[in-house]
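Morning!

This is the sequence you dropped in the shared folder:
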Amino acid sequence: MLARGQAGVSKIAQGPMALGPSLGYVSTVLLAAVIVVIVAGCTPASTPVQPTATAALIAGDEPALLHVLVRPADATVLVDGEPHGLTPLTLSLAPGQHLVRVEKNGYQALEKKVVLAPGGQASVDGSLVDVTSPSLSIQLLPRQPRVGQQMLIYLTAFDNVAVTRLELWIDDQHVLEEIGATAYYSWDISLGDVGQHVVMGRAYDVSGNETTVEQDLIVAAPFPTATFTPRPTDTPLPAPSATATSIPPTATPTARPTPPPAVNIYYETTLSIPTYPYADYLWMRHPLRLPCRKATAPW
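The structure's back. Tokens below.
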């Protein structure tokens, strides 16, 4: 504002508007900035969207192929927890992310996540890890040996894959190592082996799993040997003296006499008809009846 006085025209006051149009523009800009800050402080902050645990489907509905080539064969294949068959296997699945699990008894299971594109292909391969130890048996023949005998020790092992090595220990002494699933050891029992022993066998498979089996063994002393005792010498009997009574001689049995042979006696006579009955009477009363033949009449 200007004031008029005696001394002429002079500047007596200055206000905001007196500074010109530039100061007004700056004030307007500052006011707008304050309003923006106030509005931003009143607006709640946006929360970012977290991805869910479920598989996010890729746009499109064309099925995809999944090849499961995990070894060994005949392992069970599960996709998202559902069984689908045995390896090797090819599946047609919906596009998206899937969890594939391959398992078999005696092996460590394998899990893998795969993402399938519409119309695409993916594969899961590899090998399951064998976690089963082999089984082992020990056979001792004879079961209770004695000194002087020969004992055979047989080792036999089995495994779901393969047995690679067998070991035999007797009283912590390594006596045998054999490649394969069977082995045997021959032990000649001596007098110093009498007593109790521990026979230990150990089997290994291709995955490094091992099994240890122990058996107790008692070696018996030899059978007692029969001692030969000589028979004492018989003392001879003294010679008989001259006055000794002689032994009577043994009686010689007399042979039984042979009976005389049978004698046939025949009588001949002449009989007449009137004397015929009397002749019969004489024959009946004769002392030598047998063998005897009655005489016959000559007519």
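Headline: The mean pLDDT is 76.

More detail when I'm at my desk.
O.
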